[in-house]
Amino acid sequence: MRIVQLANFHTPTSGGLRTVLDQLGRHYVAGGHHVVRVVPGQHDSVSDVNGVEEIRLRAPLVPGMGGYRAITNTRRVDQLLERLAPDVIELSDKTTLVGSARVQRHRGAAVVMISHERLDAILARRVPAFLPLTQLADRWNRRLIGAVDAVVCCSDFAAAEFGRVDAPQLFRVPLGVDLQAFQPAADQPVDSSGPRRLIIVGRLSSEKEPEVAIDTLRVLVERQIAAELVVVGDGPIRLALERRSVGLPVQFLGHVGSRDVLSRLISNADVCIAPCEAETFGLAALEALACGTPVVVPAGGALAELVDGTIAGRVVARSAAGNRASWFADAIVALTSADRATARDAARRRAEQFTWSATSSAMLSLMEDLVQRRGEGVSRRGREYSSAAH
Q1: Which of 109, 129, 231, 371 is 20 to 30 A distant from 329 in Cα terms?
Q2: Rounded distance, CA 119 to CA 165, Å?
Q3: Residue 379 in this model has a pLDDT that exceeds 60
Q4: How far apart are CA 168 and CA 130, in angstroms?
């Protein structure tokens, strides 16, 4: 098949979306498929990325997004897609590129949209409370499902907003993790005598709620519990977080490009804090589990689905008393007071249930099914292309 991956908000240092596209593209190519990736860039460029022809089209910065770009000249996209003549478009965007995907669908290509974010959840912190966010998200999602052949969601939480609009082509495909790049260090510490080593990995933006990790550390320190925090990642609120952490044992490392270095950092932590309630999957948390590092996650969002009742971490539920930071602190104390070696083993075993080869196989099965059915003029309701236990 000729597969075109079409996405906005993709940069050389971006996180989950870039990882998904890179991993899927690599596996598609290994399966004998021709893959082209069209993403925004500072300048026009063409490069080879693990066998994928990556085309960057010059695009403007999106204000307030900390370096993200979005393609606005969709005429160039349409011309490029006309030349590429894809069998399948893998759409990782819900904004400017939807129209170009719709055009190609009318011309015979199958269009699969991967829903990387849940609109009502990610916008909740960005729009005034009086706006009817659920209704607005539903209206937009109804438009989206009319432009594609299938919507792929990576979790039950992600699928829920499309379930509200009764999307007829909704599929469930969990993501994977590189179990070779992310694995426990040979000398992974299990000593409980030192300070609790905490880490948070991800984009430093308001919707990711990284301030919860800072506030959690403050609670621990106020309780006279020895702890320290490493913050990996960068973003528009980094300076605000640095000001918030004054007087606390916090180290900001910025973006870490080396997966070996990142894996080592995560492995050396006792607990990974993943506080975002808007996550539709949680790749950073899964990578922590692969490193044998337990995670503390909120009950809201998809992160709780990763822990899934195991001892690989703790799910923090809201309660009537206290605040989120105190609840996360309680979970960290409970997790690090238990048998750490057992928790680390459980974390790794949980991660081993999610592989990129299984995810890509599920995506290819879906694509081949859709291409065949478009050729036959057949449609059907979605089903689950499960790539992992969940």
Answers
A1: 129
A2: 13
A3: no
A4: 30
Q: How far apart are CA 292 and CA 183, in angstroms?
A: 7
CA separation (Å) from 347 to 244, 341, 356? 31, 10, 18
Looking at the DSSP assignment, which residues form a beta bridge with residue 223?
A: none
Distance CA 283, CA 93 (A): 18
| Separation between Cα atoms, residue 350 and residue 274, nearest integer Å | 16
Give the full edge-to-edge strand order of the sheet including 150-153: 45-49, 52-58, 34-41, 2-7, 88-92, 110-114, 150-153, 170-172
Q: Bridge-partner residues for 6, per DSSP?
A: 38, 91
* Amino acid (1-letter code) at residue 130: F
Residues 262 and 147: their CA atoms lie apart, in Å, by 38
- Prediction pTM value: 0.92
In tens, the pLDDT along 11-35 reads 877 778 999 999 999 999 999 999 9
Residue 253 Cα distances to 20, 231, 242, 301, 317, angstroms:
23, 6, 11, 26, 29
- Extract the tokens encoding 52: 């994928």
355 SS3 class? strand
Q: How far apart are the first and last CA of the chain?
A: 29
CA 165 to the chain's CA centroid: 23
CB 273 within 8 A of CB 333: no
DSSP, collapsed to helix, strand or coil, labels residue 139 as: helix
Q: Phi-psi category of 235—alpha, beta or left, where left has phi over 0 and alpha has psi -120 to 50?
A: left
